[in-house]
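[job 0412] stage=fold_complex status=start
inputs:
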Amino acid sequence: GQNIDQPTEMTATEGAIVQINCTYQTSGFNGLFWYQQHAGEAPTFLSYNVLDGLEEKGRFSSFLSRSKGYSYLLLKELQMKDSASYLCAVIDSNYQLIWGAGTKLIIKP
Amino acid sequence: IAGITQAPTSQILAAGRRMTLRCTQDMRHNAMYWYRQDLGLGLRLIHYSNTAGTTGKGEVPDGYSVSRANTDDFPLTLASAVPSQTSVYFCASSDSGSGSTDTQYFGPGTRLTVL
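[job 0412] stage=fold_complex status=done
writing structure:
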């Protein structure tokens, strides 16, 4: 079966750095998305990785290792508004999008 | 402002009733999707449409139907609601559908409770 694993919940301090991991086992791979979802709101696009390596976008970076079936989202200089769920999703060989259950990130002052 | 709208925002429905959730996008995207999101589970695809006039079944299609008469609208119908259909429903769209890696953009969601 296809599986995406993320930690259920993480806690971090304002101003710090946090890394949210995502491991996947899918039938093929055509890319990986990270989305942010604030409570009661829609998921919004953060990043897309298809090649190995690190993609940086301001305070957020996303890393991919296809050989290890592994990605992480790195959030720097955490702000209270970063409190949200972070969803990892993989495009499989049939171009279906497989979603993880999401990681709820709690930021404390 | 371009985007996706959904209606209603929330609804409480008696079991056995028929309900249509509406979704409209103005981005001229070819593909549209319906997901449900339940606590502790990832988004699950109910139905999708790669282009106007075509639809397909997702992971959890039973009890739901869709139509795609034009590019902009993609309504989801529950013919006879059951309590297990209590969930938050998200509509999404992308420029291309099957066979693409295009980003999906989401509507604000409909919170449905079936009693």
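[job 0412] summary: The interface with chain B takes residues 4, 8, 30-31, 33, 41-45, 48, 50, 87, 89, 91, 95-102 of chain A (CB under 8 Å).
[job 0412] exit 0
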